[in-house]
């Protein structure tokens, strides 16, 4: 609980800086100035995590009691991390400048680097996927591992001490990761660059960037394109949150700033909060969905499996190692397992990587495997079926579920 409180204080300071205007440090966010943000999101995160570790208890208390963005910038200049933040800002700008199309951001630490290496080998044969990637490594181990295997990839070393540990849904570090990602989305949208957020626990049978064209899937007034929780009922209106596209405009900045504010205040998951914001078109945002038949999630693996999606996320709630093991057992062993770990240079199994659509046989995906639910998945399914029944009986209950209950169910449970 103490860790959670400290993390929230740290990121509250980050948000104040990330949303400053291009004028003086400490200026507050305004609608008219949404495009002038000048403080890099990771600079702020790095500053506050490292700074708080480097000072005395008395000075730390003094810093945490400050409530102006200008105070944090002043403190930062005192402890001398400007050079590091300049490096982060420069490498980010260079990476963005060398990518002509919409960049795709992927984040990981050393505990998710193996599944990331497997995914990089999964998509190596797809045209123009590696070229548009910007990978964010939260620790030195993952950064060095990725650069050994793929020296030409855009890998940014944004070291945040807390984020080098294992985390999973429900703990403070996962909440911090969600808030970090939301802040990053707000910052990127303020730059005027459309972009993708993706995850490496997704098996690509086809090239996402070729089969999903945001210009075709988004109407003229729509700006956010999300993956779906399912194909029917409430699930078709709910966001999975693993892979999504952001059209950079004023509405998108406001959307993710609001998401950050709520993540800072409530114990919740970002996908459910985003679903709530989409349900009533917060700040004029209009959301659309990538069809479930194209991009699925864990529910597909535990359902009837009547069709074969082109992209399949293995987001079962298990850790990264378990996800990688599951994919490898099915046949999606794109990276050679013996080349992982021990400061080795990871290598792709090109006999599989050259034709990723055939890595896992159709019979293994649809007819084979174990589709039993674990305890968490079973609970989620039971509650969801109850909600579907309530919506059928009381149609007006639907908006309450999407806008209030689903976004904050975990917060209500904790209370």
Labels describing this entry:
Spore Coat Polysaccharide Biosynthesis Protein SpsA, Chain A, three-stranded mixed beta sheet, 48% helix, 2 domains, globular, alpha/beta, 18 helices, disordered N terminus, 415 residues, seven-stranded mixed beta sheet, 10 strands
Explain the overall architecture:
The chain is α/β, with parallel strands linked by helices. It has two domains: 1-90, no CATH class; 99-415, Spore Coat Polysaccharide Biosynthesis Protein SpsA, Chain A, CATH 3.90.550.10. It is built from 18 helices and ten strands. It has helices at 2-18, 41-53, 57-65, 69-79, 82-97, 113-122, 140-149, 172-190, 208-211, 214-217, 250-265, 270-279, 298-301, 320-330, 350-353, 362-367, 375-393, 397-414, and strands at residues 104-108, 133-137, 154-157, 195-197, 202-204, 224-228, 239-246, 287-290, 295-296, 311-313. β2, α7 and β3 form a beta-alpha-beta unit. α1 crosses α4 and α8 (172-190) runs antiparallel to α11. The radius of gyration is 21 Å and the shape is globular. It starts with a helix and ends with a helix. Mean pLDDT is 78; it is low at 1-55 and 62-81.
């Amino acid at each position: 609980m103490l860790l959670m409180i400290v993390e929230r204080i740290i990121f509250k300071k980050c948000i104040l800086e990330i949303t400053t205007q291009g004028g003086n440090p400490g200026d507050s966010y305004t609608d008219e100035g949404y495009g002038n943000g000048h403080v890099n999101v990771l600079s702020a995160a790095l500053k506050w995590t490292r700074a708080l570790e480097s000072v005395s208890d008395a000075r730390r208390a003094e810093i945490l009691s400050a409530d102006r963005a200008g105070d944090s910038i002043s403190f930062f200049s005192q402890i001398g991390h400007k050079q590091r933040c300049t490096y982060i800002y420069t490498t980010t700008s260079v990476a963005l400048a060398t990518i002509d199309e919409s960049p795709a951001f992927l984040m990981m630490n050393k505990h998710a680097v193996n599944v990331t290496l497997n995914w990089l080998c999964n998509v190596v044969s797809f045209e123009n996927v590696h070229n548009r990637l910007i990978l964010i490594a939260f620790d030195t181990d993952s950064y060095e591992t990725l650069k050994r295997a793929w020296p030409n990839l855009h890998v940014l070393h944004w070291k945040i001490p807390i984020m080098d540990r294992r985390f999973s849904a429900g703990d403070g570090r996962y909440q911090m990761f969600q808030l970090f990602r939301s802040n990053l989305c707000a910052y990127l949208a303020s730059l005027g660059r459309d972009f993708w957020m993706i995850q490496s626990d997704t098996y690509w049978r086809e090239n996402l960037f070729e089969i999903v064209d945001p210009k075709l899937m988004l109407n003229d007034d729509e700006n956010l394109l999300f993956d779906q929780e399912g194909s029917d009922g409430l699930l078709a209106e709910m966001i999975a949150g693993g892979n999504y596209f952001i059209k950079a405009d004023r509405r998108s900045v406001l959307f993710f700033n609001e998401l950050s504010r709520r993540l800072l205040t409530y114990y919740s998951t970002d996908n459910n909060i985003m679903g709530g914001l989409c349900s009533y078109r917060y700040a004029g945002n209009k959301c659309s969905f990538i069809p479930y038949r194209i991009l699925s999630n864990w529910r597909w693996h535990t359902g009837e499996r009547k069709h074969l999606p082109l992209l399949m996320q293995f987001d079962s709630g298990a850790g990264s190692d378990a996800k990688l093991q599951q994919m490898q057992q099915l046949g999606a062993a794109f990276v050679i397992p013996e080349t992982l770990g021990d400061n080795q240079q990871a290598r792709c199994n090109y006999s599989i990587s050259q034709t990723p659509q055939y890595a896992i046989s159709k019979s293994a995906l649809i007819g084979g495997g174990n589709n039993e639910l674990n305890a968490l998945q079973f609970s989620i399914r039971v509650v969801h079926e109850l909600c579907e029944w309530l919506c059928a009986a009381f149609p007006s209950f639907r908006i309450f579920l999407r806008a209030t209950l689903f976004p904050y169910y975990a917060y209500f449970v904790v209370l």
